[in-house]
Amino acid sequence: MSKTKNAAGRVVRCPTCAGDSLYSPDNPYRPFCSERCKNIDFGAWASESYRVEAKPDTQDLSDDEPHGPH
């Protein structure tokens, strides 16, 4: 979802602060606008604030079943 295009790259919305961010090799934090926004996003993943939903497959289900007396 590019807002504008220029010779250096395109300007996109930073996923953290919604400010302008240059999506270009010149921006080492892309798609974030700054190191701060990148670290905020990383911290949210590390603290499990963000989660990717996954349904258990048959292997996961069989691992949870008891395997007999212990």
TrEMBL record:
Function: Inhibits all the catalytic activities of DNA gyrase by preventing its interaction with DNA. Acts by binding directly to the C-terminal domain of GyrB, which probably disrupts DNA binding by the gyrase.
Subunit (UniProt): Interacts with GyrB.
Annotated Zn(2+) binding sites: 14, 17, 33, 37
Keywords from the UniProt entry: Metal-binding, Zinc
Family as reported in the entry's similarity comment: Belongs to the DNA gyrase inhibitor YacG family.
Cofactor, how bound (note): Binds 1 zinc ion.
Names of required cofactors: Zn(2+)
Gene3D superfamilies listed in its UniProt record: Erythroid Transcription Factor GATA-1, subunit A
Protein name: DNA gyrase inhibitor YacG
Gene name of the encoded protein: yacG
Disordered as annotated region, ranges: 51-70
Name of one Pfam family that matches: YacG
Keyword match RNA-binding: no
